[in-house]
Amino acid sequence: MEELELYIQNMLNEEMIKFVISKPKLKKEEIKKIVVEKKQNYYQISKYSDKQVFHENVKEVFILEKLKSIIQNNYLQVNAFKMNTELILLISKDGKCHFKRKKSDINLGMQNEHNRQKNYILKEGKIIEPLIEMGIFTHDGKIINAMYDKYKQINRFLEIIDDVIKEENYKELNIIDFGCGKSYLTFVVYYYLKEIKGIKGNIIGLDLKEDVIKKCNAIAKKYNYESLRFEVGDINNYNAPFKVDMVLTLHACDIATDYALYNAIKWQEKMIFSVPCCQHELNNQCQPTNLKILSEYGIIKERMCALFTDAIRANLLEYEGYKTQLLEFVDFEHTPKNILIRAVKKQLVSKNYRLLKLEEIHKLMKEFNFLPTLYKLLINNKEDQDLEKISFK
Predict the structure, then answer these.
(1) Domain ranges in the chain?
(2) Phi, psi angle pair for 95, to nearest 5°
(3) Other CB atoms within 10 Å distance of the CB of residue 146
(4) Which CATH code fits 112-388?
(5) Which has the closest alpha carbon to 207: 234, 237, 187?
C-alpha cells in the first residue's frame, strides 16, 4: 500500500485542515464516516456510526500512520479540505488510488486566518529592540508606515517557526544560523524565543564577512543578548559547539544551502528552516533526455531548475526522515517571493515511503542528467546503498 501512504502524506504536506473518510469497503462496517480535523497541536478524530460518535485525539507525529491504518482495506474515499481547496482520493476495491484536486466554495479556516493576520506575534506598541534597529518600529514601539509590509513579513517568518515549536514544551534550543549576513532575522528569533516563548535560545550566527560579524556582536552586546553570538566561519565542515536543535539558512547562495542542509541532516536536527537563493547548479547541468523543450528557452530553464533544486532537496529531507514542506515566504530584502523549506524530524518513517521519495529523485535526475550537491554529499558521507541506485551519462 505504498501508493496510499504517499497520497496521504502529500495531503498532510499541503496542510489540509479537515479530512472526511467515507464509503466503507464492507457494507457491514459499523463506522460509516470518519472526520479528522486539525487542531492547534493535534488531530481530533470523530468516528460516526448510525447511532453514536466516538472521539479520539492523535498527536501530529502519529497522524500519518493513524490515517493509513484507518483507511487501508476499510474505506474507498477520502476528501480533504482547506480554504478554497478540496483534494479527493478514490480507492478501488483492489487498492488502486485515483487522486484529483478542485476548487471548493467551503472557506474552512477563513475566520481563523483573518484573526491570525490581525494577531501578530510581534505586537505593535512594545519596545522590540531588533525592530527598532531595523527601522521598522519607532523608539516608542510604533510601526513606521513605510515599513508595514516588512513588519508583516517578519511576523510570517515567526509564524512558520511557531507552528512547529508550539507543539513541544521546549525550555532551551540550540540554533545555528548559517550565512547570517546582517542577522536581522537572527535577532528577531532570539527576541521571540526569550521574550515571547520563554525559551532560552543559544544561537550562533555564522558568516564569512568579518566586518558584518563584528557589527552583529556589537548589537548583541548592546541589547544584552547573552546567549547570542556571531562567528566568522564557513558553512562547509563547521563543527558546532553544542548539539544543534534548529538550523536557519536564509539566502545561502546556490550550493551553500546544500552544505547547510547536509550539516543539519548529519547532526540529526529537530528543525530546519531554509530560504534558498541563486540556484545555478542544476541550470548549468540540465540536459533533458526526452523533454528538450524545457531547456530551449533560458528563462523557462532557469525557473524550472530552481524549482527542481528545491523539490529534490525536499525529497532528500523526506528520505532522511523529515516531514518537509515547501512554503511560500515573502522575502523582505531580495526577490518578491521565495520558497521556504520547513523540515521537522519525524519519529516514525516507513522504509517504503522513504524509497518512494528516493525513486522520484532518481527519475528526475535521469531525465535531466544532473547530480545535485546535496545528493553527492549524502552519497560520499553516508553508507547508504539506496542513494547509489542510479547511473548517469
Answers:
(1) 2-109, 112-388
(2) 95, 0
(3) 9
(4) 3.40.50.150
(5) 234
Give the C-alpha separation, 295 to 195, whole Å. 50
**Strand-pair category, 85-91 with 228-232:** unpaired
Q: How high is the pLDDT of residue 85?
A: 86
* Model pTM score: 0.68
DSSP secondary structure of 167-227: TS--SEEEEEEET-TT-HHHHHHHHIIIIII--EEEEEEEES-HHHHHHHHHHHHHTT-TT
Nearest to 191 by CA among 121, 264, 251, 252: 121
The HSE-up count of residue 348 (CA atoms within 13 Å, CB side) is: 10
Q: How confident is the model at residue 282 (pLDDT cuts 50, 70, 90)?
A: very high
Sole residue written with cell 514542506: 325
Q: How far apart are CA 370 and CA 288, in angstroms?
A: 9
Q: List the grid coordinates of 324.
A: 518537509
Q: Are 312 and 364 in contact (CB under 8 A)?
A: yes
Mean pLDDT for the stretch of residues 214-219: 93
